[in-house]
Amino acid sequence: MLVDTHTHIYLKQFDEDRKEMIQRAKDNGVEKFYLPNIDSETIDDMLRLETEYPDTCIAMMGLHPCSVKPETYKNELGIVKEWLEKRKFCAVGEIGIDLHWDTSTLEIQKEAFRVQINWAKELELPIVIHSRKSTQEVIDVLREEKDDRLRGIFHCFGGSVEEAKAIIDLGFYLGIGGVLTFKKAGLDKTMEEVALENVVLETDSPYLAPTPFRGKRNESGYVKLVAEKLATIKGMSLEEVGKITSANAVEIFHKNQAI
Predict the structure, then answer these.
(1) pLDDT above 80: residue 256
(2) Residue 241: inside a domain
(3) Fewest CB atoms less than 10 Å from the CB: which of 62, 122, 130, 203?
(4) Domain range for 249
């Protein structure tokens, strides 16, 4: 069993072959697909996919930091809050800080991040974090907000051993995807020092496809390539990697819940 803990397969990039793509993923052993939200424009498509595949596609709710804009973010947060009050979600996500595309919105990104962290704590839900070029900024916020209720995943982790340890010390898991397979990324060296008990698998489809599909559309079935690379690094079987990382996903998303 494999789990894709972070996949945007509700996006338009899959409109032509979504059913076939999901079947390919299942053929590769993927049994669960966790769907992070982006903003108000993606909610309907995400929830529609969850309705079509209720046993396999599981939705989160949150406001992506790249959608935190001065003129709209308060309204967007209001929509997130309405949905969190309306029904159960598996996590608040994806949320965080992105300093790749726009550094001018850092302060309101932090504000939106903190607001959603506190909603997650109140609801006893995990958070799924986006931290592009902002790992230290995100860690600083988490240290300030930390209590026994705060938990979740650092999505698309690609950092150093020191950063990994800091994240694990905060009680978070590392979301490992296609970057692990990139020759010059160096993530393989970091993962040699990280126990699998702190790791979950992801694709971030349709983005960040692993080698040999780098630069092309990613899809959830490629999570098997990430698992295979991790198995090689750890000197373990693919089955054992799948078992441990899938159990971690259950612990994060379904803690104290029947699934």
Answers:
(1) no
(2) yes
(3) 122
(4) 2-253
Average pLDDT over residues 186-209: 98
Q: In whole angstroms, how large is the CA radius of gyration of the chain? A: 17
pLDDT averaged over the chain?
A: 97
What is the band of 255 on the pLDDT scale with cuts at 50, 70, 90? Answer: confident
Q: Would you say residue 259 lies in a domain?
A: no
Asked if the model's pLDDT at residue 258 lies above 80, the reply is no
Q: How many CB atoms lie within 10 A of CB 24?
A: 15
Could you give the number of structural domains in the chain?
1
**Mean pLDDT (whole number) for 219-237:** 98
CB-CB neighbours of 126 under 10 Å:
25
**Mode of pairing for the β-strands spanning 152-154 and 92-96:** unpaired
Inside any domain, residue 223? yes
What local confidence, expressed as pLDDT, does residue 7 receive?
98
Q: Confirm whether 85 is domain-assigned.
A: yes
